[in-house]
């Protein structure tokens, strides 16, 4: 069965589609755009002067198969300049310096948010150098403001580059009510002044539409927003919060495992092989066998049981449909629990949570996130599973006669 798929690029006619390779589609297109601007004098010219060599551009995949567009750019001769220089036409949907279409570059940039260059490189089969080249090309590029409508939510995300390069680039994006993201700019560094200068330069009509800004927990970003966009609420993405507290839990597990390596007999320790992945997962996502292994770890290192439960409870708070005020109460109660239990591993996170409480709890107002990590559709399903997961864990612990520990934890 055949279905028509729009290529989403302007001013072209499809000449042929080559599906002969298993790797993907090669689509040859012809520009229907007439004329260009002379590269020397800038005047519009339309005296056709043949085609230049064919170029190949990577475009958005179709059914996960890569698509390449081939085009022979048109050339035009200038009747005004001396010696009649020729200029090659560039269509609006690609950049003459790039091996990708603009739509494809946007999709790569979006994918880089909350990911790493290495991950995206591997996933897309593109060299890391090419991805860095893409980021560099987008740095300081002019924003076509008239094409960008209202910006209800602004996203400020960073991408850590490889060591030895500039540390970070910052991606500023506009996110609409459907969660669709449009990249506004790639900034060369994460200095407050860099971010603030960009935000201050947003045209006034669009500035007025900005209601919230979703940022990473870094004062350079929040202060840039507070100073350049007064009145805009700053939200810390729950993804960044989760990364932080999950890191704390992981660190505790590593420390306990090191201690167990010294104290447990070798064959007992060997039974904990692979428990790192098990510990990182939600209870409900584990197989029966993995659950048994995790409970075995808890029996050797009871503190990890508390760490694990508190980590999951925190995730549960973010999944609950709370108001901002309710969230603040629950998050503070969580802090009290951690302190009562004396769980040192969360100390650094508690400090962060207290410092950013306002911005973190702002998440509960609209439940917006700048990343793609959470699909809204899945949310309700996930909440159900998480709750089930925790009760199921408690039930198993009870079955194992560890009720005393549970009482101690007051669940
Ligand atoms: Zn000219």
Number of helices: 17
Q: Supply the helix-strand structural class.
A: alpha+beta
Relative strand content = 15-25%
Helix content class:
40-55%
Beta strand count: 14
Major beta sheet summary: 5 strands, mixed
- Shape field: elongated
Provide mean pLDDT, rounded.
84
Q: Bound compounds, please?
A: zinc ion
Instruction: Write down the domain tally.
Output: 3
Strand order of the largest sheet: 12-11-10-13-14
What low-confidence regions span 5 or more consecutive residues with pLDDT below 50? 371-388, 401-411
Radius of gyration from the alpha-carbon trace, in angstroms:
27 Å
Report the end-to-end length measured between terminal Cα atoms: 56 Å
Summarize the structure.
Helices cover 46% and strands 18% of the residues. It has 411 residues and is of the alpha+beta class.
Can you offer a commentary on this structure?
With 411 residues, the protein is α+β, with helices and mostly antiparallel strands. The chain folds into three domains: 12-95, no CATH class; 105-236, Nucleotidyltransferase, domain 5 (2-Layer Sandwich), CATH 3.30.420; 239-409, no CATH class. 46% of the residues lie in helices and 18% in strands. The chain contains 17 helices and 14 strands. The chain has helices at 102-112, 117-124, 128-138, 192-200, 204-207, 219-228, 238-263, 266-270, 275-280, 288-300, 302-319, 324-341, 347-355, 357-361, 363-366, 376-399, 403-409; strands spanning 12-18, 25-31, 36-37, 44-45, 47-51, 55-62, 65-71, 74-77, 86-88, 153-160, 168-175, 181-187, 212-215, 233-236. The strands form four sheets. A five-stranded mixed β-sheet has the order 12-11-10-13-14, with helices on both faces. It has a four-stranded mixed β-sheet with strand order 1-2-7-6. The protein has a three-stranded antiparallel β-sheet with strand order 5-8-9, with no helix packed on it. Strand 8 (74-77) and strand 9 form a beta hairpin. The longest helix is centred in the middle third of the chain and has 26 residues, at 238-263. It is elongated and about 85 Å long. It binds zinc ion. The site of zinc ion has 7 residues, from loops.
């Amino acid at each position: 069965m055949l279905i028509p798929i729009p290529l989403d690029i302007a001013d072209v006619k499809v000449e042929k589609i080559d599906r002969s390779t298993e790797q993907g589609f090669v689509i040859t297109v012809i520009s229907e755009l007439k004329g260009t601007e002379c590269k020397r004098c800038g005047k519009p010219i339309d005296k056709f002067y043949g085609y230049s060599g064919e170029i190949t551009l990577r475009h958005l995949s179709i059914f996960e198969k890569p698509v390449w567009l081939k085009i022979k750019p048109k050339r035009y001769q200038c009747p005004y300049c001396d010696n009649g220089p020729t200029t090659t036409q560039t269509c609006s949907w690609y950049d003459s310096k790039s091996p990708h279409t603009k739509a494809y570059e946007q999709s790569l940039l979006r994918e880089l948010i909350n990911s790493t260059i290495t991950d995206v490189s591997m996933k897309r089969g593109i060299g890391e150098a090419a991805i860095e080249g893409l980021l560099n090309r987008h740095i300081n590029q002019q924003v076509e403001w008239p094409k960008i409508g209202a910006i209800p939510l602004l996203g400020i995300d960073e991408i850590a580059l490889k060591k030895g390069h500039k540390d970070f680039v910052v991606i500023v994006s506009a996110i609409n009510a459907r969660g669709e993201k449009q990249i506004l700019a790639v900034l060369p560094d994460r200095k407050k002044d860099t971010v603030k200068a960009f935000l201050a330069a947003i045209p006034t009509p669009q500035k007025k539409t900005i209601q919230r800004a979703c940022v990473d927990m870094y004062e350079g970003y929040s202060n840039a927003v507070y100073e350049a966009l007064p009145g805009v609420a700053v939200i810390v993405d729950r993804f960044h919060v989760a990364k932080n507290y999950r890191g704390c839990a992981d660190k505790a597990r590593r420390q306990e495992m090191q201690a167990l390596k010294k104290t447990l007999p070798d064959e007992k320790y060997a039974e904990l092989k692979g428990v790192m992945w098990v510990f990182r997962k939600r209870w409900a996502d584990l197989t029966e066998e993995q659950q048994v292994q995790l409970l075995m770890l808890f029996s050797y290192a009871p503190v990890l049981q508390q760490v694990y439960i508190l980590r999951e409870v925190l995730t549960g708070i973010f999944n609950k449909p709370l108001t901002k005020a309710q969230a603040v109460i629950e998050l503070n109660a969580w802090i009290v629990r951690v302190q009562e239990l004396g769980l040192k591993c969360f100390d650094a996170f508690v400090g962060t949570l207290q410092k950013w409480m306002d911005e973190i709890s702002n998440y509960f107002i609209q439940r917006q996130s700048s990343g793609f990590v959470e699909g809204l559709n899945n949310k309700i399903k996930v909440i159900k599973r998480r709750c089930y997961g925790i009760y199921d864990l408690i039930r198993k612990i009870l079955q194992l006669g560890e009720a005393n520990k549970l009482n101690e934890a007051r669940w």
